[in-house]
Amino acid sequence: MSSHPKIWIVAGESSGDLYGAELTRELKRLAPETEVAGMGGVNMRQAGVRLLVDSTELGVVGIIEVLGMIFKFVRIMLFLLNKVKEERPDAVVLIDYPGFNIRLAKRLKKLGIPVIWYISPQVWVWRKSNIPKLARYCTKMMVIFPFEVDVYKGSGLDVEFVGHPLVQIVQGRRDPALKRDPDRILLLPGSRRNETKRLLYPMLEAAALLKQRHPSLQFVISAPREKVAEDILRDLREFQQKKHCPELADIPVSAGRTPEFMQTCIAGIAASGTVTVESAIAGLPLVVAYRLNPVTYLLAGILIGKLFRNAFAMPNIILDRKIFEEFLQYQGSPAALADALERILPGGSRRQEVESGMEEMTRELSCGITGAGINAARCILNVIEKKRSPGG
After folding, report:
1. Helix pair 274-282, 165-172: axis angle to 10 deg
2. Do residues 90 and 387 touch, judged by C-beta distance below 8 A?
3. Whole-number Å distance between alpha carbons of 153 and 161
4. Distance separating alpha carbons of residues 323 and 279, to the nearest angstrom
5. What is residue 306's DSSP assignment?
């Protein structure tokens, strides 16, 4: 490439921040003079991204929750558009976060800035009407699930499966010195406040039930960052005061240690999300739960209808069959979660089935030995090269 490329990456959630960091490292490896700026969190900053907006606390789910932050999103949008006009990056890479990023893509297209989308919005679940919009606004769509190529068929959008970045990330941080403790269970109640508030209590009640059945079991709660851990710890103390569960008196809450616990725990209960794919790649069997605001859930049922492939846990969607047992809204009672977790403990009736399913899913998401990050980086640099070439 004749002169160093200027690339923006825009990520609004913790998973996008992780992928943006990996992508940045691969871009700088292929083109060391690349300038990368944009919106993200601590991982992207550490990877060398010049953060224009810190998105650490911007991850929200649900119509009701988004409405509470609408003016903040508008301010960020206007700020980024003004900076784009000043800096004129060669391309802007948008990572998932569709509510914000589709609106940003539309405006970037009007400004003549090539838009490359990495980690497709889940248009196969929510708002298929976004497919023609993405085809109009985007120069390239890089998808991380093999079935997504077919989702965009006939749209005219240039779509490429690059593999899932978590395969490379999770396998790269595997520590052979870490061993699984057959008595340690991981609880992952989410990365957002509205998730942890709804999921922590049923998870803890399930843990109490399991502790009564299997006294040797120990539980650990993991959060992605300190702010979330503080909220969880406060809720844990309230739970212990209300429910008087001496068996859970010493349950620890940690921040930033989820990758380690995925290698040392024997099974877990998790909020639905990227963490379910991460756990499957790491070889940690899970039970998956999710609870939305009741109004959001009602609206989602009206707007979406039935679930894509009859599942909401990503490993189940990827393989189009049940790998992790999943429980939506109040299906996830403490007794249901405890029974499902018991089935995936060593010797449990589903343990072997889940282990083979996790291995199969990981193979499905591996796009060659190079990995998603470098595949995506090459795609981005190729788009910029074409734009700079005569007639591009």
Report:
1. 50
2. yes
3. 13
4. 12
5. S
* Letter string b/e over residues 145-168, b meaning 16 or more CB atoms within 10 A of that residue's CB: bebbeebbeebebebebbbbbbbb
CATH 3.40.50.10940 fits 184-365, yes or no: no
Q: Where does residue 2 rank: exposed (0-12), middle (13-18), buried (19+ CB within 10 A)?
A: exposed
Of 294, 303, 309, 311, the closest CA to residue 127 belongs to 303
What was the pLDDT predicted at 316?
A: 96
What's the pLDDT tens digit per position in 228-244? 999 999 999 999 888 87
Q: Over the range 196-222, which residues count as b (16 or more CB within 10 Å of their CB) and which as e?
A: bebbbbbbbbbbbbbbeeeeebebbbb
State both tokens at 381.
């640099």
Nearest to 100 by CA among 157, 60, 148: 60
Which residue, chain included where needed, has tokens 């998730």? Answer: 195
Q: What is the pTM of this model?
A: 0.83
- pLDDT at residue number 306: 65
Answer yes or no: are the C-beta atoms of 313 and 288 closer than 8 Å.
yes
CA-closest candidate to residue 296, choices 61, 123, 75, 110: 61
What are the residues facing 50 on neighbouring strands? 37
The residue assigned the tokens 């090459």 is: 378
Q: CATH 3.40.50.2000 in the chain: give the residue spans.
A: 6-163+367-388, 184-365
Strand order in the sheet with 286-290: 253-255, 218-223, 184-188, 267-271, 286-290, 325-328
State the pairing for strand pair 140-143/35-40.
unpaired
- Calculate the CA 251 to chain-centre distance: 26
Fill in the amino acid letter for 331. Q
Six token digits for residue 356: 């083979």
What's the order of all strands across the beta sheet hosting 115-118?
50-54, 35-40, 6-11, 91-95, 115-118, 140-143, 159-161
Cβ atoms of residues 148 and 159 within 8 Å: yes
Q: Domain 6-163+367-388 belongs to what topology?
A: Rossmann fold (3.40.50)
Give the span between the Cα atoms of 162 and 23, in whole angstroms: 12
- How many CB atoms are closer than 10 A to CB 359? 13
Q: How far is the C-alpha of 201 from the C-alpha of 211, rounded, in Å?
A: 15
pLDDT of residue 315: 96
How far apart CA 80 and CA 83 sit, in angstroms, is: 5
